[in-house]
């Protein structure tokens, strides 16, 4: 079996600590999720709803107990690898939720800026400058990242796989940018610029997971490049996690719009706990660079393709948001 003692004997426990801490958090939010399933506004007096909103000392003790259990649980090598794979899948779900929630936030911000242009008696000059400046900044950041991708991960013409991954994403980005210029689509240059940067970031994160012995993967003798990208990725993930977790408690994406005045309106905590469950697995994967135990030379091709798929899914989601009003003309978007 694989225990914490084994990692101490091997001289490194970082991977096991991150994974087992993630397991404790996942178990906690899984229990909270199960307790809140099918609760309604009319159930606010029930013990299930009260536990979600109250009893903080009891929940803290329960969380600490699950943490101890996660660290004490003996696991075979196959069981441990299976747990890492489950965490990868949950982390992928979180990234998809993050894309949906963040896309909604980008649209909300774009709508507010457009309303400022329409309502400003002086011609909307302030809102115009803000919208133009943020749009230019997002595209400048995206194009800088694009150059970074080609320089580091396509060092020669033989790197056709990396070249195809980057170029196909670039084609998608150009496509939704051109479509967003149409006056009747559900979007604009600002939303396209931010989405382009986000999708290219996911591509960079994916390529950074390539095995270090792959000829097209950038390698530095002191590991500075990998450390820098990991740090940037973690900080971006930390900010995105905070925004997504906050939005999960109030945003209508994925859970529908409940009417709090209706006793049969769904209670929102189920979705809230589901987001935190997937976010716990995502944090664990960020700490271990999406790698398995004992892997020190890049996370591997599984992680690469998971992230590439998510990048293209995010681009496709935004494309759909742009063209949906033309496909379903009788619906309000």
The assigned structural class equals: mainly alpha
- Mean pLDDT equals 77
The percentage helix is over 70%
Low-pLDDT stretches are 251-261
How much β-strand is present in the residues? under 5%
Tell me how many strands there are: 0
Our Rg estimate from Cα atoms comes to: 22 Å
- Assembly form of the protein: single chain
- Termini separation comes to 53 Å
Anisotropy-based shape: globular
| Order of secondary-structure elements | HHHHHHHHHHH
Largest sheet: none
**Tally of separate helices:** 11
Provide structural commentary.
The protein is mainly α. The protein has helices at residues 4-10, 14-36, 47-53, 56-72, 77-119, 125-153, 160-180, 189-207, 224-248, 269-287, 301-327. The model is unreliable at 251-261 (pLDDT under 50).
Please give the structural blueprint.
Elements: H1 4-10, H2 14-36, H3 47-53, H4 56-72, H5 77-119, H6 125-153, H7 160-180, H8 189-207, H9 224-248, H10 269-287, H11 301-327
Helix pairs in contact: 2-4, 2-10, 5-6, 5-8, 5-9, 5-10, 5-11, 6-7, 6-8, 7-8, 7-11, 8-11, 9-10
Give me a quick take on this structure.
Helices cover 71% and strands 0% of the residues. With 333 residues, the protein is mostly helical.
Protein traits:
71% helix; 11 helices; mainly alpha; 333 residues
């Amino acid at each position: 079996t694989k225990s914490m003692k084994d990692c101490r004997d091997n001289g490194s426990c970082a991977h096991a600590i991150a994974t087992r801490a993630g397991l404790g958090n996942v178990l906690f939010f899984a229990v909270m999720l199960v307790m809140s399933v099918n609760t309604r506004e009319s159930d606010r007096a029930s013990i299930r709803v009260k536990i979600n909103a109250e009893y903080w000392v009891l929940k803290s003790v329960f969380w600490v107990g699950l943490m101890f259990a996660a660290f004490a649980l003996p696991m075979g090598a196959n069981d441990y690898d299976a747990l890492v794979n489950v965490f990868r899948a949950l982390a992928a779900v979180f990234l998809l939720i993050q894309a949906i929630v963040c896309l909604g936030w980008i649209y909300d911000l774009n709508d507010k800026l457009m309303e400022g242009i329409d309502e400003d008696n002086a011609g909307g000059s302030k809102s115009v400058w803000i919208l133009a400046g943020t749009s230019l900044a997002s595209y400048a950041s995206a194009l800088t990242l694009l150059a970074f991708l080609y320089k580091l991960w396509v060092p020669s013409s033989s790197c056709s796989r990396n070249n195809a991954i980057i170029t196909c994403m670039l084609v998608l980005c150009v496509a939704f940018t051109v479509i967003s210029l149409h006056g009747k689509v559900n979007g604009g240059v600002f939303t396209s610029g931010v989405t382009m940067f986000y999708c290219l970031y996911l591509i960079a994160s994916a390529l950074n997971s390539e095995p270090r012995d792959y000829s097209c993967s950038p390698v530095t003798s002191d590991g500075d490049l990998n450390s820098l990208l990991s740090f940037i990725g973690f900080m971006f993930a930390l900010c995105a996690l905070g925004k997504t977790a906050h939005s999960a408690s109030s945003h209508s994406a994925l859970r529908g719009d409940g009417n709090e005045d209706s006793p049969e309106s769904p209670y929102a905590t189920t979705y809230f706990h589901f987001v935190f469950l997937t976010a716990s697995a995502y944090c664990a994967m960020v700490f271990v660079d999406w790698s398995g135990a004992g892997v020190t030379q890049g996370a591997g091709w599984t992680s690469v393709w998971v992230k590439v798929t998510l990048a293209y899914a995010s681009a496709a989601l935004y494309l759909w948001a742009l063209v949906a009003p033309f496909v379903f003309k009788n619906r309000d978007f």
